[in-house]
């Protein structure tokens, strides 16, 4: 019976055949231990000399790392392994012999591993990170589909920018200027006016010359937009969503979290509601902590966000930032024209901002003022203004950065390990 490693528990005490690669091996005289992977998981295959043909045993002893095969054996319980099962091998059919596989079971430098990212993905830890990423994506679709949201795909090539054009990739669109999208938000607002509650999930691009562990040039965003939803309701949806995906990872990625040696006690605390601190109070807190150079009106950097988050044991919302440092479309706070109805959700353990969101301006005249202030009178923005002209309603939305969220929940240090093929300031290969 042909099966996969992930499904072997369903075939306990039965003989199965698995298409697999050899990730590692060791042998001791009359027994060979094969560490096998097939994309769905990892399992140990045990080859005992007295239980197989001489040809099969010699083949097992001579297998090279990353050689591919069909391997047949009986599934048995193995309480010593994290997976809980192993394969008592009876036959091996070699498909392809790999020679001089470059990533050996020893320490390699980061640049070497990044140069071989197409192969590094096969390793146990990288496999675990990608499985956690997949679970976050799966549970994201579940959360929004169950909540009555409609999936909408905004364009990647755009004629306008959501937050200014200084950090966008410019390209020629025949005889026009175009940009790679930095956010689908403006288009999602249009979609929300048609469908009520919508979400997008797709790649975004920032031409930001940053080399920090939190930044990528190309990354993926989940961007919900909701008509008839104010800022307070949006915050509640955000904390429910983050709690949901964290719970899903804890429940469905136990093995992967174990492989990554992730301390799950911190993840178990991720339950709504989340604490909140205003920008005003965050400035006071930072000054108390010795950040004498921070002043009201300054944006927060990574050290500031970490210092704020360290005061809480779960994600924290920083609310009501100054209007001057936020995007043109954010609605002013009632009674305060100097701050806007927005929030950044800061993850604990130094992982920084994972969500940015706000209530959007729904008043036509105020949006016209913002257009003047930000010099947005280009025809490319005409359609966005019309959303306030024809049936405008209160609406809010947010964007969650997938890679930062994967890094946080899986506990890896750098976002370059949270996307299959990272695009960094100095890296476009492989």
TrEMBL record:
EC number per UniProt: 6.1.1.22
Entry keyword annotation includes Ribosomal protein: no
Gene Ontology molecular functions: asparagine-tRNA ligase activity; ATP binding; catalytic activity, acting on a protein; nucleic acid binding; transferase activity
UniProt record, GO biological process: asparaginyl-tRNA aminoacylation
Top EC class for this record: ligase
SUPFAM superfamilies named among the record's database cross-references: Class II aaRS and biotin synthetases, Nucleic acid-binding proteins
Superkingdom in the source lineage: Bacteria
Catalytic activity: tRNA(Asn) + L-asparagine + ATP = L-asparaginyl-tRNA(Asn) + AMP + diphosphate + H(+)
Subcellular location: Cytoplasm
Gene Ontology CC entries for this record: cytoplasm
Keywords (A to Z) from UniProt: Aminoacyl-tRNA synthetase, ATP-binding, Cytoplasm, Ligase, Nucleotide-binding, Protein biosynthesis
Pfam families xrefs: tRNA-synt_2 (PF00152), tRNA_anti-codon (PF01336)
Domain spans labelled Aminoacyl-transfer RNA synthetases class-II family profile: 130-430
Gene3D superfamilies given in the database record: Bira Bifunctional Protein, Domain 2 (3.30.930.10), Nucleic acid-binding proteins (2.40.50.140)
Protein family membership: Belongs to the class-II aminoacyl-tRNA synthetase family.
Assembly information from the UniProt record: Homodimer.
Official protein name in the record: Asparagine--tRNA ligase
Organism encoding this protein: Virgibacillus profundi
């Amino acid at each position: 019976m042909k099966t996969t490693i992930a499904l072997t528990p369903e075939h306990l005490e039965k003989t199965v055949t698995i298409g697999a690669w050899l990730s590692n091996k060791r042998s001791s005289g009359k027994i060979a231990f094969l560490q096998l992977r097939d994309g769905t998981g990892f399992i140990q295959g045990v080859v005992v000399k007295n239980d197989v043909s001489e040809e099969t045993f010699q083949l097992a002893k001579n297998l090279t790392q990353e050689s591919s095969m069909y391997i047949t054996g009986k599934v048995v319980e193995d309480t010593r392994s994290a997976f809980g099962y192993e394969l008592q091998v009876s036959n091996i059919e070699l498909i392809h012999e790999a020679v001089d596989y470059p990533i050996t079971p020893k320490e390699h430098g980061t640049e070497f591993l990044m140069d071989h990212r197409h192969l590094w993905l096969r390793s146990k830890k990288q496999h675990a990170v990608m499985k956690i990423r997949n679970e976050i994506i799966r549970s994201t679709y579940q959360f929004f589909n169950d909540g009555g949201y409609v999936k909408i795909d905004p364009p990647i090539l755009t004629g306008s920018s959501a937050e200014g054009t200084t950090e966008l990739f410019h390209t020629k669109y025949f005889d026009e200027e175009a940009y790679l999208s930095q956010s689908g938000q403006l288009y999602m607002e249009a979609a929300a006016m048609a469908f009520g509650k919508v979400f997008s999930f797709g790649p975004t691009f920032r031409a930001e010359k940053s080399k920090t562990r939190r930044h990528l040039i190309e990354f993926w965003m989940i961007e919900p937009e909701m008509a008839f939803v104010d800022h307070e309701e949006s915050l509640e949806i955000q904390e429910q969503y983050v709690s949901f995906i964290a719970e899903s990872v804890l429940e469905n990625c136990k093995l992967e979290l174990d492989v990554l040696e992730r301390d799950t006690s911190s993840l178990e605390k991720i339950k709504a509601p989340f604490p909140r601190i205003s920008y005003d109070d965050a400035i006071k807190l930072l000054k108390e902590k010795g950040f004498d150079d921070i002043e009201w009106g300054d944006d927060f950097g990574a050290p500031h966000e970490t210092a704020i988050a360290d005061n809480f044991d779960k994600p924290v919302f920083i609310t009501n930032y100054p209007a001057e440092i936020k995007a043109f479309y954010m609605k002013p706070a009632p009674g305060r024209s100097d701050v806007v109805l927005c929030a950044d959700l800061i993850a604990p353990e130094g992982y920084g901002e994972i969500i940015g969101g706000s209530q959007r301006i729904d008043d036509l005249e105020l949006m016209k003022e913002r257009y003047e202030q930000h010099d947005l009178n280009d025809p490319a923005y005409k359609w966005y203004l019309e959303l306030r002209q024809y049936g405008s309603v209160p609406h809010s939305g947010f964007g969650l950065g997938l890679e930062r969220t994967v890094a946080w929940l899986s506990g890896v240090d750098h976002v370059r390990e949270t996307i299959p093929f990272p695009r960094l300031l100095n890296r476009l290969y492989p």
